[in-house]
């Protein structure tokens, strides 16, 4: 999904997955032990992911845990628009997405 959401980076899915796998609060330095990404990169991305609701920051520590939205991101049922994102096209032939109110088509 990251290729369809302007603010996302390729590493975001693996970071959210690491937070979810921990099943509790985890700090970026601990995540970096299990990742090819630097502690600084993980900390930066955790702040962005928390701002967008995929993970939650502990109120008294620099630790994070998964949210319901983060679970949906990992395991399905989430569209780019659910992230409050600007959907970006990957090439010039991309289909334009339009979000409109649903209407009764049975008439």
Describe this structure in words.
Strands 1-2 form a two-stranded antiparallel ribbon. The protein has helices at 12-22, 28-33, 39-51, 68-75, and strands at 55-57, 64-66. The termini are far apart. Residues 90-107 have low confidence and may be disordered. 36% of the residues lie in helices and 6% in strands. The longest helix is centred in the middle third of the chain and has 13 residues, at 39-51. The protein is globular. With 107 residues, the protein is mainly alpha-helical. Strand 1 and strand 2 form a beta hairpin.
Low-confidence stretches: 90-107
Average pLDDT level: 80
Helix content: 25-40%
Q: Widest sheet: strand order? A: 1-2
Q: Report the portion of residues in β strands.
A: 5-15%
Shape: globular
Structural class, from helix and strand content?
mainly alpha
Radius of gyration: 16 Å
Distance between the termini: 35 Å
Total beta-strand segments: 2
Please count the helical segments. Answer: 4
Listing every helix as H and every strand as E from the N terminus to the C terminus, the arrangement reads HHHEEH
Largest sheet: 2 strands, antiparallel
